[in-house]
Amino acid sequence: MKQLTILSGKGGTGKTTITASFAVLARNAVVADCDVDAPDLHILLHPKIVKTQEFRGSKLATINETKCTKCDLCREKCNFNAITENLQIDPISCEGCGVCSLVCQVSAITLTERVSGHAYISETKYGFMAHALLNPGESNSGKLVTLVRQNAKVLAEKEHADLVIIDGSPGIGCPVIASVTGVDAGLIVTEPTMSGIHDLERVLRLLGHFNVRPFVCINMHDINDENTKRIVDFCGENGVEVIGKIPFNPIATEAMVNEKPIVEYASESRIAKKIIEMWKRTVSALKCGSQ
Fold first, then answer.
1. In the chain, which ranges are E strands?
2. Within a 10 A sphere around the Cβ of 97, how many other Cβ atoms?
3. Fold of the CATH domain 2-55+122-286
4. Where are the domains of the chain?
5. Global pTM exceeds 0.70
6. Topology classification of domain 58-114
7. Could you tell me whether strands 58-63 and 48-55 are parallel, antiparallel, or unpaired per DSSP bridges?
8. Average confidence (pLDDT) per 10 residues, the chain, 291 residues
Protein backbone atom coordinates (compact mmCIF):
# COMPACT_ATOMS: atom_id res chain seq x y z
CA MET A 1 0.00 0.00 0.00
CA LYS A 2 1.32 3.41 -1.03
CA GLN A 3 0.34 6.82 0.34
CA LEU A 4 0.22 10.00 -1.76
CA THR A 5 -0.45 13.44 -0.27
CA ILE A 6 -1.66 16.22 -2.56
CA LEU A 7 -0.79 19.60 -1.11
CA SER A 8 -0.13 23.24 -1.91
CA GLY A 9 1.40 26.30 -0.34
CA LYS A 10 -1.95 28.09 -0.19
CA GLY A 11 -5.61 27.50 -0.81
CA GLY A 12 -7.24 27.73 -4.22
CA THR A 13 -4.51 26.16 -6.36
CA GLY A 14 -6.65 23.18 -7.36
CA LYS A 15 -5.41 20.37 -5.12
CA THR A 16 -8.89 19.22 -4.08
CA THR A 17 -10.04 19.31 -7.71
CA ILE A 18 -7.13 17.04 -8.66
CA THR A 19 -7.68 14.80 -5.62
CA ALA A 20 -11.30 14.24 -6.64
CA SER A 21 -10.28 13.33 -10.18
CA PHE A 22 -7.63 10.94 -8.87
CA ALA A 23 -10.31 9.30 -6.71
CA VAL A 24 -12.40 8.70 -9.84
CA LEU A 25 -9.45 7.30 -11.78
CA ALA A 26 -8.16 5.01 -9.03
CA ARG A 27 -9.29 1.41 -9.29
CA ASN A 28 -8.38 0.38 -5.78
CA ALA A 29 -7.78 3.30 -3.44
CA VAL A 30 -8.99 4.94 -0.23
CA VAL A 31 -9.35 8.72 -0.11
CA ALA A 32 -8.62 10.85 2.96
CA ASP A 33 -9.57 14.52 3.30
CA CYS A 34 -7.04 15.87 5.79
CA ASP A 35 -8.12 19.50 5.52
CA VAL A 36 -10.10 19.19 8.75
CA ASP A 37 -10.46 22.94 9.34
CA ALA A 38 -12.28 23.62 6.07
CA PRO A 39 -12.91 20.34 4.23
CA ASP A 40 -14.49 20.49 0.79
CA LEU A 41 -13.66 17.19 -0.93
CA HIS A 42 -17.10 15.90 0.13
CA ILE A 43 -18.71 18.45 -2.19
CA LEU A 44 -17.30 16.60 -5.20
CA LEU A 45 -17.38 13.01 -3.94
CA HIS A 46 -20.74 13.06 -2.08
CA PRO A 47 -19.81 10.60 0.68
CA LYS A 48 -22.42 8.68 2.62
CA ILE A 49 -21.37 8.55 6.27
CA VAL A 50 -21.30 5.06 7.75
CA LYS A 51 -19.43 5.76 10.99
CA THR A 52 -18.91 8.84 13.18
CA GLN A 53 -16.29 9.28 15.91
CA GLU A 54 -16.07 12.02 18.51
CA PHE A 55 -12.71 13.76 18.60
CA ARG A 56 -11.62 15.07 21.97
CA GLY A 57 -8.56 17.19 21.31
CA SER A 58 -8.85 20.01 23.83
CA LYS A 59 -9.76 20.54 27.48
CA LEU A 60 -12.11 22.81 29.34
CA ALA A 61 -11.66 24.09 32.88
CA THR A 62 -14.45 23.39 35.38
CA ILE A 63 -14.80 25.05 38.80
CA ASN A 64 -16.26 23.06 41.68
CA GLU A 65 -18.29 25.72 43.48
CA THR A 66 -18.48 23.72 46.72
CA LYS A 67 -14.68 23.71 47.01
CA CYS A 68 -14.04 27.19 45.63
CA THR A 69 -13.06 29.82 48.23
CA LYS A 70 -13.50 32.66 45.74
CA CYS A 71 -9.94 33.87 46.23
CA ASP A 72 -10.03 35.16 42.62
CA LEU A 73 -6.48 33.94 41.94
CA CYS A 74 -7.55 31.84 38.96
CA ARG A 75 -9.17 34.82 37.26
CA GLU A 76 -6.11 36.99 37.88
CA LYS A 77 -3.75 34.44 36.32
CA CYS A 78 -5.90 33.55 33.30
CA ASN A 79 -4.28 35.13 30.23
CA PHE A 80 -7.32 34.47 28.08
CA ASN A 81 -9.91 36.27 30.25
CA ALA A 82 -11.88 33.04 30.28
CA ILE A 83 -13.04 33.37 33.91
CA THR A 84 -15.77 35.89 34.64
CA GLU A 85 -16.03 38.11 37.70
CA ASN A 86 -18.51 35.70 39.26
CA LEU A 87 -15.97 32.89 38.62
CA GLN A 88 -17.71 31.17 35.73
CA ILE A 89 -15.75 29.58 32.88
CA ASP A 90 -16.38 30.97 29.39
CA PRO A 91 -16.12 27.83 27.19
CA ILE A 92 -15.38 29.93 24.10
CA SER A 93 -12.42 31.76 25.61
CA CYS A 94 -11.00 28.88 27.65
CA GLU A 95 -7.91 27.36 25.97
CA GLY A 96 -7.57 24.51 28.47
CA CYS A 97 -4.04 25.60 29.35
CA GLY A 98 -4.39 24.50 32.98
CA VAL A 99 -2.94 27.58 34.69
CA CYS A 100 -6.10 28.11 36.73
CA SER A 101 -5.96 24.53 37.99
CA LEU A 102 -2.28 24.91 38.82
CA VAL A 103 -2.69 28.06 40.93
CA CYS A 104 -5.86 26.97 42.71
CA GLN A 105 -4.85 26.32 46.34
CA VAL A 106 -7.89 24.17 47.17
CA SER A 107 -7.94 22.02 44.00
CA ALA A 108 -11.36 23.33 43.02
CA ILE A 109 -10.56 23.46 39.29
CA THR A 110 -10.25 20.44 37.04
CA LEU A 111 -9.69 20.05 33.30
CA THR A 112 -12.09 17.83 31.37
CA GLU A 113 -11.84 16.77 27.75
CA ARG A 114 -14.41 18.23 25.43
CA VAL A 115 -15.58 17.26 21.95
CA SER A 116 -13.47 19.29 19.50
CA GLY A 117 -14.80 17.78 16.29
CA HIS A 118 -15.84 14.59 14.56
CA ALA A 119 -14.14 12.08 12.29
CA TYR A 120 -16.10 10.17 9.68
CA ILE A 121 -15.77 7.03 7.62
CA SER A 122 -17.88 7.18 4.49
CA GLU A 123 -18.68 5.39 1.28
CA THR A 124 -18.58 7.06 -2.12
CA LYS A 125 -19.27 5.54 -5.51
CA TYR A 126 -15.50 5.65 -6.04
CA GLY A 127 -14.62 3.79 -2.83
CA PHE A 128 -14.18 4.49 0.87
CA MET A 129 -13.32 7.91 2.27
CA ALA A 130 -11.98 9.06 5.65
CA HIS A 131 -12.62 12.69 6.60
CA ALA A 132 -13.31 14.96 9.57
CA LEU A 133 -14.47 18.38 10.68
CA LEU A 134 -12.96 20.39 13.52
CA ASN A 135 -15.39 22.52 15.52
CA PRO A 136 -15.04 26.29 14.98
CA GLY A 137 -12.31 27.83 17.12
CA GLU A 138 -10.84 24.51 18.20
CA SER A 139 -7.15 23.66 18.05
CA ASN A 140 -5.20 20.39 17.70
CA SER A 141 -6.12 19.98 14.04
CA GLY A 142 -2.88 18.01 13.59
CA LYS A 143 -4.17 15.35 15.99
CA LEU A 144 -7.45 15.13 14.08
CA VAL A 145 -5.52 14.77 10.80
CA THR A 146 -3.60 11.89 12.39
CA LEU A 147 -6.90 10.23 13.30
CA VAL A 148 -8.16 10.62 9.73
CA ARG A 149 -4.98 9.04 8.38
CA GLN A 150 -5.24 6.17 10.85
CA ASN A 151 -8.82 5.54 9.73
CA ALA A 152 -7.75 5.64 6.08
CA LYS A 153 -4.93 3.18 6.72
CA VAL A 154 -7.25 0.75 8.52
CA LEU A 155 -9.74 1.02 5.64
CA ALA A 156 -7.00 0.45 3.06
CA GLU A 157 -5.74 -2.64 4.87
CA LYS A 158 -9.26 -4.00 5.29
CA GLU A 159 -10.17 -3.41 1.63
CA HIS A 160 -6.72 -4.48 0.34
CA ALA A 161 -6.32 -1.09 -1.34
CA ASP A 162 -3.17 -0.30 -3.30
CA LEU A 163 -3.16 3.43 -2.56
CA VAL A 164 -4.29 6.04 -0.04
CA ILE A 165 -4.89 9.41 -1.70
CA ILE A 166 -4.62 12.20 0.87
CA ASP A 167 -6.01 15.69 0.26
CA GLY A 168 -3.85 17.85 2.52
CA SER A 169 -4.62 21.28 3.88
CA PRO A 170 -2.91 24.37 2.43
CA GLY A 171 0.28 25.84 3.86
CA ILE A 172 3.08 24.19 5.80
CA GLY A 173 1.69 24.17 9.35
CA CYS A 174 0.85 21.45 11.84
CA PRO A 175 -2.01 19.80 9.89
CA VAL A 176 0.15 19.68 6.75
CA ILE A 177 3.02 18.10 8.68
CA ALA A 178 0.58 15.49 9.99
CA SER A 179 -0.57 14.91 6.39
CA VAL A 180 2.89 14.23 4.93
CA THR A 181 4.85 12.36 7.60
CA GLY A 182 5.52 8.80 6.53
CA VAL A 183 3.91 9.04 3.07
CA ASP A 184 5.58 7.74 -0.09
CA ALA A 185 5.24 10.95 -2.12
CA GLY A 186 3.84 14.45 -2.08
CA LEU A 187 2.25 16.03 -5.14
CA ILE A 188 2.54 19.82 -4.87
CA VAL A 189 -0.04 21.74 -6.88
CA THR A 190 1.24 25.20 -7.72
CA GLU A 191 0.41 27.97 -10.16
CA PRO A 192 2.60 30.26 -12.29
CA THR A 193 2.48 33.33 -10.06
CA MET A 194 5.12 34.91 -7.86
CA SER A 195 3.32 33.79 -4.71
CA GLY A 196 2.88 30.33 -6.22
CA ILE A 197 6.63 30.02 -6.82
CA HIS A 198 7.38 31.19 -3.27
CA ASP A 199 4.88 28.74 -1.75
CA LEU A 200 6.24 25.90 -3.90
CA GLU A 201 9.73 26.47 -2.49
CA ARG A 202 8.39 26.37 1.08
CA VAL A 203 6.50 23.11 0.55
CA LEU A 204 9.50 21.51 -1.14
CA ARG A 205 11.63 22.36 1.90
CA LEU A 206 8.98 20.76 4.12
CA LEU A 207 8.91 17.55 2.08
CA GLY A 208 12.70 17.50 2.03
CA HIS A 209 12.79 17.76 5.81
CA PHE A 210 10.61 14.65 6.12
CA ASN A 211 12.35 12.79 3.28
CA VAL A 212 9.17 12.62 1.21
CA ARG A 213 9.58 12.25 -2.55
CA PRO A 214 8.20 15.37 -4.27
CA PHE A 215 6.28 15.75 -7.52
CA VAL A 216 5.02 19.04 -8.93
CA CYS A 217 1.88 19.89 -10.89
CA ILE A 218 1.61 23.34 -12.45
CA ASN A 219 -2.06 24.24 -12.62
CA MET A 220 -3.21 26.84 -15.18
CA HIS A 221 0.31 26.71 -16.61
CA ASP A 222 -0.66 28.68 -19.72
CA ILE A 223 -1.69 31.88 -17.92
CA ASN A 224 1.97 32.91 -17.56
CA ASP A 225 4.54 31.11 -19.71
CA GLU A 226 7.44 32.99 -18.16
CA ASN A 227 6.64 31.93 -14.60
CA THR A 228 5.86 28.38 -15.75
CA LYS A 229 9.36 28.23 -17.25
CA ARG A 230 10.80 29.53 -13.97
CA ILE A 231 9.06 26.73 -12.07
CA VAL A 232 10.19 24.07 -14.56
CA ASP A 233 13.78 25.36 -14.46
CA PHE A 234 13.78 25.53 -10.65
CA CYS A 235 12.46 21.98 -10.39
CA GLY A 236 15.01 20.75 -12.90
CA GLU A 237 17.87 22.36 -10.97
CA ASN A 238 16.67 20.69 -7.75
CA GLY A 239 15.92 17.26 -9.18
CA VAL A 240 12.14 17.54 -8.76
CA GLU A 241 9.92 16.01 -11.43
CA VAL A 242 7.18 18.20 -12.91
CA ILE A 243 4.69 15.41 -13.35
CA GLY A 244 1.86 17.44 -14.84
CA LYS A 245 0.95 20.75 -16.42
CA ILE A 246 -2.77 21.52 -16.42
CA PRO A 247 -4.11 24.22 -18.77
CA PHE A 248 -6.60 26.88 -17.77
CA ASN A 249 -10.15 25.97 -18.71
CA PRO A 250 -13.44 27.47 -17.43
CA ILE A 251 -14.92 23.96 -17.54
CA ALA A 252 -13.09 23.27 -14.27
CA THR A 253 -15.31 25.87 -12.60
CA GLU A 254 -18.38 24.39 -14.29
CA ALA A 255 -17.51 20.99 -12.89
CA MET A 256 -17.20 22.40 -9.37
CA VAL A 257 -20.49 24.27 -9.66
CA ASN A 258 -22.09 20.99 -10.70
CA GLU A 259 -20.35 19.23 -7.79
CA LYS A 260 -18.55 16.71 -9.98
CA PRO A 261 -14.89 15.79 -10.54
CA ILE A 262 -13.56 17.16 -13.84
CA VAL A 263 -12.70 13.76 -15.33
CA GLU A 264 -16.29 12.70 -14.81
CA TYR A 265 -18.02 15.96 -15.77
CA ALA A 266 -15.99 16.60 -18.92
CA SER A 267 -14.08 13.40 -19.64
CA GLU A 268 -13.22 14.39 -23.24
CA SER A 269 -11.96 17.86 -22.41
CA ARG A 270 -8.28 18.75 -22.75
CA ILE A 271 -7.96 19.47 -19.05
CA ALA A 272 -9.41 16.04 -18.15
CA LYS A 273 -6.99 14.32 -20.51
CA LYS A 274 -4.05 16.15 -18.92
CA ILE A 275 -5.18 15.06 -15.46
CA ILE A 276 -5.47 11.46 -16.67
CA GLU A 277 -1.94 11.65 -18.10
CA MET A 278 -0.65 13.01 -14.78
CA TRP A 279 -2.46 10.25 -12.88
CA LYS A 280 -0.84 7.56 -15.01
CA ARG A 281 2.62 9.06 -14.50
CA THR A 282 2.02 9.37 -10.75
CA VAL A 283 0.96 5.76 -10.14
CA SER A 284 3.73 4.56 -12.43
CA ALA A 285 6.29 6.48 -10.37
CA LEU A 286 4.77 5.09 -7.16
CA LYS A 287 4.74 1.56 -8.62
CA CYS A 288 1.27 0.81 -7.27
CA GLY A 289 -1.53 -1.10 -8.93
CA SER A 290 -4.30 1.53 -8.94
CA GLN A 291 -4.05 2.38 -12.64
1. 2-7, 29-33, 48-55, 58-63, 109-114, 117-124, 127-134, 163-167, 185-190, 213-219, 241-246
2. 15
3. Rossmann fold (3.40.50)
4. 2-55+122-286, 58-114
5. yes
6. Alpha-Beta Plaits (3.30.70)
7. unpaired
8. 93 92 94 94 97 92 94 95 94 92 95 93 96 87 94 95 94 93 96 92 95 96 95 95 95 95 94 96 82 54
